[in-house]
Amino acid sequence: MSTKSIRTIVSSTIVAGALAISVAAPAFACHPVGVIQKQVKDVTTGSALVEANSDSTALSVNEGDTLEYVITIGNNGVAGDNGLGDMVKTVMTDTLPTGVQLTSNPSETTITNDVGTVTVGQKVTLSYEVKVTSNQDGAFLTNKACFTGNNKNNNDPQSGCDVAIVKVSVPPTPTPTPTPTPTPPAQSLPTTGISSLAPVFGAILLGASVYLVGIRRKLLSRA
Fold first, then answer.
1. Phi and psi at residue 52, to the nearest 5°
2. pTM (2 decimals)?
């Protein structure tokens, strides 16, 4: 084998190795790793902020309560030159489930936030409040938030989702206490029968007594 041929082989090997390293660096050494976490708390009852990722860990809430959803998007990637570890074009999307209503805009059911660039080690927190409108006792309401992003070379797409679940309690409707019907005052009934004639007989007897007394006086005066 000639010297020229050896040099060509060595040269080709070095170039191939260099290309392999340059391609592998962005994909494995310097790249973003997007993560998302969704939590919820009951503002009305003052509950703690919890993850509530399953029905068994769902946050108990009441119909009419105000809830706060907190979404954190982070980048656990490896930093590199020229910001190759940054996650760019990051967008968060959250579609509200039936049973809750955005307090700031009740007609809005899908929330979209352009987060932009999330650098390595950075965390971006988003939050908003909703009102529980579900009147179904025991209903589980699952709220999912998702994100998408990429690296600066647009060849390392990132995405992920997380949920927060609440369980609705609807207090029983209290039975109204009936208003007592007032008892009407007793009315005196007209007197009937012999007892009703007693005043008449008394007046007659009194008149007769007076008459007899008068006659007696006359007779005594004549005597």
1. 50, 60
2. 0.66
